[in-house]
Amino acid sequence: MYKYHCLNPISEVGLERLTEAYVPVSDAKTADAILVRSAGMHDMEFGENLKAIARAGAGVNNIPLEKCAEEGIVVFNTPGANANGVKELVIAGMLLASRDILGGINWVQENEEDGNIAKDAEKAKKAFAGCELEGKKLGVIGLGAIGVLVANAAMHLGMDVYGYDPYVSVESAWKLSRNIHHAKSVDELYKECDYITIHVPAMESTKGMIDSNAISLMKKDVVVLNFARNVLVDEEAMVDALISGKVKHYVTDFPTPIVAGVKGAIVIPHLGASTEESEDNCAKMAVKEMVDYLENGNITNSVNYPNCNMGKVGDNKRIVLLHHNVPNMIGQFTKVLARDNMNIADLVNKSKGGYAYTMIDIDSDVPETVAEDLRAIKDVLRVRVLN
Ligand SMILES: NC(=O)c1ccc[n+]([C@@H]2O[C@H](COP(=O)([O-])OP(=O)(O)OC[C@H]3O[C@@H](n4cnc5c(N)ncnc54)[C@H](O)[C@@H]3O)[C@@H](O)[C@H]2O)c1
Ligand SMILES: O=C(O)[C@H](O)COP(=O)(O)O
């Protein structure tokens, strides 16, 4: 039996895939696995049973990845599962920044008692006129799951699209329309574009990427869209640029006291992934990853351990070991197994940065003393015996 805890509401479409072997618990400290969306986990103390955290979504800046890795907790996310939801809201954001739709709707609400509203609207509407997206230049920073969809969709709307991503994956490059211009530097994109949208993860290297220097390179009346994370933009500098008129609109999915209410800021309450489809997709993927790890030891879409897959546990016993990525770990594992005359049917070892994962199928029972001896090896962080 496995205990799981949901730190945020998780779509039932995902949870209903859990068999009776999975029991929800109200105390996260007792759980084998945690399902989470954006709840902050940096100040949490984890229980010793906790083996997996599955983030039903993309961004993992709410989770202490290094601490989890050290405690033998594998963190998963659901790449691409909510990308379409975000793409659609980014397009809506560009339209809201181009046509004064919000101003127009407010005008109608303010004049709802006006019996002559139809006629008066025809006089009032010139105050809400805007411009079209077709023919404008859009710069997309970060061509991952979301950036690629935004770039391709904007191209189909007739925009001239520039993409910048020095680390673009082969998979994303295949999906990107060949009509997207390759910006060789982010500065080139800042100088060229009328609309700039950022789709990179929040990391030390990307925090404050759009700062006063970046804004100074942009065209006057540029529209900046941020559906990735607030920390990517120096918000004080952005507010100055809105006040001075350099930036026409800052469309952000992240309300903060600095930007909320500022003229020119269009602030949305983190709705990018809040669609039925995205929530269902994320929950299904997160649950699948969590179950496959707990039951079979397979790791898919982890952000702190390597991906590793040996299929379902069959008739053999499977030992899975999370450990530091240092020399001679396999040698020490096989020495313990050989001592007890255990035969290895299959073995896979993968690494990611400072951490590594070893899966070993054994064609006999694994005595608890063997598991204990494996746990006692220096640099081993967690050992589980499955089946
Ligand atoms: N608003 C929302 O509801 C919502 C929903 C999903 C994701 N997000 C945010 O959007 C981010 C991106 O999501 P995704 O699914 O596209 O992720 P992704 O991992 O598929 O893509 C991120 C891309 O950024 C690129 N990148 C990294 N550093 C860069 C840099 N310095 N310059 C240019 N490109 C760089 C990577 O190479 C990668 O291609 C997430 O990390 C998350 O913070 C927000
Ligand atoms: O990173 C993400 O996936 C998004 O920001 C969505 O977050 P949410 O699941 O809290 O809506």
Automatic annotation (TrEMBL):
NAD keyword on record: yes
Span of domain ACT: 318-387
Superkingdom as given in the UniProt entry: Bacteria
Pathway: Amino-acid biosynthesis; L-serine biosynthesis; L-serine from 3-phospho-D-glycerate: step 1/3
Cross-referenced CDD domains: ACT_3PGDH, PGDH_like_3
Catalysed reaction equations from the record: (R)-2-hydroxyglutarate + NAD(+) = 2-oxoglutarate + NADH + H(+); (2R)-3-phosphoglycerate + NAD(+) = 3-phosphooxypyruvate + NADH + H(+)
Protein's recorded name: D-3-phosphoglycerate dehydrogenase
